[in-house]
Amino acid sequence: MKLSPKDFLISAAGSLLLVLSAWLLGLQGLSLLLLGLLGLGMLIALQWVSHFEQKLRIQQLEQFLKALVANQDIASLEQPQAWQGVAKLLKSIQTYLKISRQSLEDRAQLYDEMEQKLEENEQLLLEREDRLRQNEQKLQRSEYKVLEYNLALQHINLIQRKIQGTLSIGSLLSEATQLLVFHLCAHRGLFLRMDYQNQTVQVLSPINCPHDETSVLPLDPLQQLIQQNGLDNPPAAETQEANIRILRLEQPSSPLYDMKFISALLVPVWVDRDLWGVFCLFDKEERLQTSQDQPFTAFGESDELILRNVVAFLQKDLRNAYLFEMATVDSLSQLYVRRYFENRMRDEIRRARRHPTVFSVLMIDIDHFKRVNDTYGHLVGDVVIRKVADMLRNSLRLGVDLPSRYGGEEMVVLLPNTPLAGAVHVAERIRKAIEEMYIEELASTRILPHITISAGVASYPAQGDDYKPLLEAADQALYRAKAGGRNRVCDASEILT
By CB distance 3.0 to 4.6 Å, which of 166, 179, 194, 333 could disulfide with 389? Predict the structure, then answer.
């Protein structure tokens, strides 16, 4: 056992006190030494016992504390008497700590449950956020779709207002083609009018196309395309947009009539269960162009919506225009019939009286037409009438001037808001164009006939202030042109003066 400095001093002091006591008692020599050593030994033994008891108590205290920390029952442990009070206090502390530990464990379990619930709620929140994001995207797409459809309806309304009331089939198809190309941002478009009698296709209102309105194309390629895609049967109701069928073509292997394209929309047009032709729109232009490599994009649902609605009411308008032309247009010359001309001229007289304006009338006659019939036959005569009428119609203002077949080889033209000098100029332009006209159908004849016209011009109100005197003035001017050698224009002012 190793003595601490404190124990050593206590032992030394005790030995000195023992030797001093022996000296005072008169002990000397060896007895005094032995007594001193005995006292020293006793003191050392006493210190050792004290140290051993202290170590034992420390061990007991350590065991006691370990049991306390381990939450064991400390009543079963050996305890000094002096520790009874402390043991009771420690027992209370142990009970408190046990309760606190149990409470902490319960709280920890509750915390784990709450944490798990929070994780579940967080996962649920993430799922709801994802669902909300998806719904927001759907809502944005729906809003965009609504805006797109509203814009489509505006386009439909604009197109309908522009072509509504038009009673000319050619004007209807031409105007509709131009409006569809513009409103659908198509790069090119045209209407292919089908002629089953001649097995050809007539090109109407071509825009950015390799063909013009004089082009005559074979019918077979278009007819085969329609039949292959099941569009050769008429719809149940022609005027309902739901029954309008659209053929969508995407990057075909072969071009249509030498027209290459990336995407196209083709819509058959039916009137009274007869297929009149097909609207063709090619390559939608990308107006917000982000790449120069892709200037075109595919047609969308809103484009098809516009196309369906426009074709639906266009087919109704075409039927009305067809019935109107059947009643007002001459089948041979495709000019207006005499009765329609007379009604329109009377309307123009009433308008000119209400709003003081002038208008003019041209009376035209094909020179030596009887000789053409007698020499070449009536079929050739019909060709001449048709060609002269085409030239006459192409020389006038579309939708303003009114050309009519007055009878036989005579034709008459109403020129609104045109004074006499302007009417003479128009008549001279028509006369010169017909004089220079080449009739291909007559090229095989032995002697090619030279077709000319004579024209008489009269103006309201100078040469006549009513229907009959105005036409008589124009007819007298025509008679004077024929008497003067034909192939010339004469105005009624020369007669009156």
Answer: 333
> pLDDT tens digits, residue range 162-185?
888 777 788 888 888 888 888 888
Token reading at 342: 């007379």
Inter-axis angle of helices 338-354 and 467-483, nearest 10: 120
Q: Model confidence over 234-277: pLDDT tens digits?
A: 777 655 656 788 888 886 656 788 888 888 899 999 888 888 88
Q: What's this model's pTM, rounded to 2 decimal places?
A: 0.60
Residue-wise pLDDT tens digits, 413-464: 999 999 999 999 999 999 999 998 887 766 666 565 678 999 999 999 888 8
What interhelical angle do 420-435 and 378-394 show, nearest 10? 130
Strand-pair partners of 275: 270
Residue 195's beta-bridge partner residues?
A: 200
The distance of Cα 363 from the centroid of its chain, to the nearest Å, equals 54
Which are the catalytic amino acids? 409
- Residues near 155 by beta carbon (within 8 Å), at least 6 away in sequence: 183, 184, 306
The CATH number for 338-496, chosen from 3.30.70.260, 2.40.30.10, 3.30.70.270, 2.70.70.10, is 3.30.70.270
Give how far Cα 248 sits from Cα of 201, 268, 270, 281, Å: 20, 12, 18, 10
Residue with tokens 């302007």: 422
Q: Residue 356 pLDDT more than 90? A: no
First to last CA, the chain: 166
pLDDT in tens, 15-45: 666 666 656 665 555 665 666 666 666 667 7
For residues 94 and 71, is the Cβ–Cβ distance under 8 A?
A: yes
Q: What is the CATH number of domain 169-328?
A: 3.30.450.40
